[in-house]
Amino acid sequence: MFRRLFLALAVLLVSGGSAAAQQAKPEPLTFWYDYTVRPGRDADFLNLVKTVGQPVRDKLMADGVILAWGLEVPVLRVPGYATHVIWYVVADMAGVEKVQDAMTAQLAKIAADENAQKVRKELTTAERILEVTDVTKTRDWLTRDVIVNHGATAIPAGTLPYTAYSAIKARPGKSGGYATAWEKYNKPVYDKLVADGVVLGYGLAVEAVKTTDDFTHFLWVVTKDLAARDKVRAALLASQGSLSEADRDEMTEIFAEAADASAGRQMLTRSLIFKTAGH
Residues 105-160: pLDDT tens digits? Predict the structure, then answer.
């Protein structure tokens, strides 16, 4: 019974997406910047974000290139993890290129303007970035949402939500059955939570450019507040409880065979900046 309970709870953390990839529907890309900000420099980092990167991302969002972007910090501090994460969502690789080119141009313009000053009164922006962040620990990711639901209702401007991430490592050759099980047992629950306004959006992502073997898929779930996390958990448990014993056993066995539960990891973040198209 303990094993069954453990594996059933593990189902709440897992996700898969090869079946969804076969469907002809948009699969947005997300570019993630993991930063390690030096102790006591959080305010300085936020100022850099607002003065250097935010104008670029806001302009590209107004132009329809960026669909959403934000800045997050972890709720639980873990040694070795990023202290701040900036992300932006685009429709395709062309959008990634436009953002990268725009940021390169922004940094070049700032550097040129600062070099043109006859008397330097303070550190340059490039120097401040080096002073505020440990650039040796900066980590970039590019992921693709193979299953995604942003909901039909726009997220109100000014909302600063929480995001729960669940990373999972599928066993070799098991992603097909794993994805089928996830869509059968979990996707309907999340779709209902989105429709009810409990979840603002969710997505199942894989790396668009593979850079790690630590995980194969991860699920992100955005909620307005942490209280909604209790409702998400209750809905998933209720869904599992409504299954027959045979179906629960089947579900547990499929997930246990398809995923390495010991490799699963979770992260919970809160937003300092959160913007979606139209806001």
Answer: 999 999 999 998 866 778 999 999 999 999 999 999 999 998 889 887 778 888 89
Beta strand segments in the chain, E: 29-35, 66-74, 84-90, 139-149, 162-168, 201-207, 217-223, 265-276
d(CA 182, CA 205): 13
Q: Please report, for the chain, the start and end positions of each structural domain, with discontinuous segments joined by +.
A: 2-276
29-35 and 217-223: which strand pairing?
unpaired
Return the CATH class of domain 2-276: alpha beta
- Which range among 6-20, 56-70, 193-207 shows the weakest confidence by mean pLDDT? 6-20
Amino acid identity at 192? K
From residue 265, alpha-carbon distances to 14, 169, 214, 226, 235 in Å are: 10, 9, 10, 19, 21
Most distant CA atoms of the chain, gap in Å: 77
Helices (H) and strands (E) in the chain, counts: 10, 8
Q: Three-class SS of residue 164? A: strand
The SS3 call for residue 221 is strand
Q: How many CB atoms lie under 10 A from the CB of residue 132?
A: 21
